[in-house]
Amino acid sequence: MSAESLPSLNLDLARAKRCGYPEVVYGAGKTVAETVTAAQRLVAAHGRVLVTRCREEQLAALQAGLPDGEVWSRCGAFLVGPLEARGGMVLVVSAGTSDEVVAEEVVVTLRARGAHYQRLQDCGVAGIHRLLSQQELLAQAQVVVAVAG
To answer: What pTM was estimated for this model as a whole?
Structure first.
């Protein structure tokens, strides 16, 4: 299916010039064809794309259509062309394993933006000693993203 046959796609190809990063494709609610076409058009325009909230069939089609991309199956994301890490460190802290879907989406988004990040996993209040033992790392972070509940 060609992009011309998908009239619902009206991508903001100028967003990278205005904001410093290109449009992200939100996969939920899109057909496989819409998702792949949008991603391919953004890669053609910018050399990179982040697609979020994909179903398995969307991820498979994205991988087939953009073989240089990276699949993040747990959170349903797909990334082509992450930037080299720069800037201060972002610490992504997740409380428990049920929070890993959201934490993984945070990580892939940070990679897409070229952010330097580290992870702290399974540090919820039920095992607060796991978080308290990381005080030095917490103090080094310029930003902390906490994922809990």
So the answer is: 0.88
Query: In this structure, what token pair is assigned to residue 66?
Result: 């953009």
Q: Which DSSP symbol is given to 10?
A: -
Burial of 64 (0-12, 13-18, 19+ CB in 10 A): exposed
Tokens of 62: 């994205």
Specify the length of the chain in residues: 149
CB count in 10 Å sphere of residue 146:
17
Instruction: For the chain, give the longest Cα–Cα distance.
Output: 56
Closest CA to 42 of 67, 8, 66, 64: 66
pLDDT tens track for 31-56: 999 999 999 999 999 999 999 999 99
